[in-house]
Amino acid sequence: MNRLSLAALLLASFPTFAQKAKPAENLVQYAHPIVGTQRMGHTFPGATVPFGMVQLSPDTDTISYEQNGKYNPKVYEYCAGYQYEDKTIVGFSHTHFSGTGHSDLGDFLIMPTTGPLQLNPGTADKPESGFRSRFAHQNEVAEPAYYKVKLDDHNILAELTATNRVGFHQYTFPKADDAHIILDLTAGIYNYPDKNVWTFVRVENDSLVTGYRQTNGWARTRTEYFALQFSKPFRQYGARNYAKKQAYRGFWGRFDQAHNFPEQAGEQLRLYFDFQTQAGEKIKLKMALSSVSTEGALRNLRAELPGWDFEQVKRQGQAQWQQELSKVTIESPKRVDKDNFYTALYHAFLSPTTYQDVDGQYRGLDQNIHKAEGFTNYTTFSLWDTYRALHPLFNVVQPKRNADMIQSMLAHFGQSAEHMLPVWSHHANENWCMIGYHSVPVIADAIVKGNAPFDANKALDACVTTARQQWYDGIGEYLRLGYVPEDKSGSSVSKTLEYAYDDWCIAQAAKKLGRADIEQEFSKRAQNWQNVYDQRIGFMRPRLSDGSFRKDFDVLSTHNQGFIEGNAWNYSLYVPQDPGALIAKMGGNARFTEHLDSLFTMHLPDKFFAETEDITRDGIIGNYVHGNEPAHHAAYLYNWTNQPWKTQARVRMILPKMYRPTPDGLGGNDDCGQMSAWYVFSALGFYPVAPGSPEYALGSPAIHGATLRLENGKTFRITVKNQSDKNVYVKEARLNGQKLTRPFLNHQNILNGGELVFVMAGKP
């Protein structure tokens, strides 16, 4: 071979030598934090990294949970602290939930101001009466790991970014002799006058402040420490304690604690730090968090953010998002498809959140300090929602993180005085929200799918112990009667159905691990769903402890009918572990399909969900409530009938109705990523109807192609032929060249890598 042909061969083999490689597409541009920030979205638009401990975001009001001694329903609009329709911002706090229907957090609110010092937040209609400021959306930018807004009343440009454990603020001031930065330790989300149990602050020097606060809210014993560093020394500082006077105050009254006093303690503290600024001068702040100590917060600060280069930290944060979003790359000629998909993937990667310091220490459920050995400890487990699609999505694209999350759940179990796995937990607390014990399907799904680098038998034992706790939420009656009686425990039908599904999950994990006794026990328990099915009317129905079905019953109402966040029409379809048996129980294919059709085509009058706080007309299609989770699997149930093509049509109808890249773009609460995970799976063309099973039900892909880059180094490719808005039906599906004869895909098929080809058509 001559020298010329050898050179040609080398160029052909390594095209990067001959031409510059095409840069990877910037996926961050398609992820929009502002989506879902209106009432039903409850997301936050601020700065965070994937699964970050800090969620630094603007709060647009400080609505009290309590009003005149009663629940204030308006507080529900501020679950994430931010309302898109609001015209003012009260400050920027460091912890937020994404898309929850209840709330907490909003820690350590920072607000820069100019002019006479004001230490009250003022009101939305009169912002000039306090430190809040008007703002306009045309002066607002929200990107992954970055937020910017102009505070009009103070002529300050506010910019935010973050590392995992540190929030980074950059404020560009006008020329001012009276510039202030306010640290509000009274502010919080779902706040009320006595929520702060105690706060403590130390001014360490002229640019470093440390402290903590303990709150009693959704998490009844929550302690958060901070270390706050300024890029510029403050001229002077002060504090106000707004708590009611205590009967005993010791001998601290001899000091002037309001001005330049370095130690503060009380229930309701606001501090201020004064500066002189030149026009265009930037003052930067770094706020590090820790659940362990102020020393831990300082350690986090020094390890993650030692310098002051704001742009560099922003770039690093967005590079982290690019890395995570690149685990799934899609193809579509329509910008809206990429906007929707990567916004959904962004939301899916916000939580659960890191909950440990850089040295692995964290506060446990027992309020003692523990150290995570061999795993990253996580918190924010909205499990009633996220077991359905979010954790199964993690088993595909985030298996290492998902395994760490399960180890975090097992650590919770080990610290639990009740010997329970998490139900709904955050920040070293179990808040007991919602029903079921849905750590179980998360753990079982990982075991069944082979993603269990933890002690799987120990995990199964924790599941079994949790499932046998007879004192918990009707389980005693459930074990004695085979169902939860409505006269003993509310939402009894939902509990019975969800316990039966969780029991089935335990049986699947036991089968995988060769634990025949456990498999037999829980396979039998899993049949209990049949005990609340009323054959006479064809619906699930509440039963009483005497064995009778409750007479007063409405199949459409969502209020006080034995169900939670749903009605009988939706919940009668909740047997995801055995759709075939449900179909037979409901009278066979024709009768079942008729019921399923009616779910999407009938009209649900407003009166039937008027008392359901987190559902509006926008989240409903017919009687199908996509804005709440119990029916998220329903559209895929046609795959167990003789009309699977209806799954394809329903999915493609739901996607554009419930997901749009606009501030009101979600048809319900995102619920810590569950709504978004539904979108990701469904847009790709398959969905985990029953986590705990290795099977996915096929739907109708909404994109033109996708590549999943798996942690095992393999690639799973999805190719969609003849894709269009009209071609919603799957004419044929082939896996690695072999035609699929059933509308299902196995998890191992994905892990092995390869290609799934959909051939689309305009008719079933």
Give a short synopsis of this structure:
Helices cover 26% and strands 23% of the residues.
Report helical residue fraction.
Answer: 25-40%
List low-pLDDT spans: 1-19
Number of helices: 19
Structural class: alpha+beta
Strand percentage, roughly?
15-25%
Round the mean pLDDT to the nearest integer and report it.
Answer: 95
User: What is the CA-based Rg, rounded?
Assistant: 27 Å
Q: Give the name of the CATH superfamily of the largest domain.
A: GH92 mannosidase domain
Walkthrough of the structure:
With about 775 residues, the chain is of the alpha+beta class. It has two domains: about 300 residues, Beta-galactosidase, Chain A, domain 5, CATH 2.70.98; about 425 residues, GH92 mannosidase fold (2-Layer Sandwich), CATH 3.30.2080. Helices cover about 25% and strands about 25% of the residues. A nine-stranded antiparallel sheet has the order 8-9-10-11-19-15-14-13-17. A six-stranded mixed sheet has the order 20-34-35-39-36-37. Helix 5 crosses helix 18, helix 9 runs parallel beside helix 12 and helix 10 runs antiparallel to helix 12.
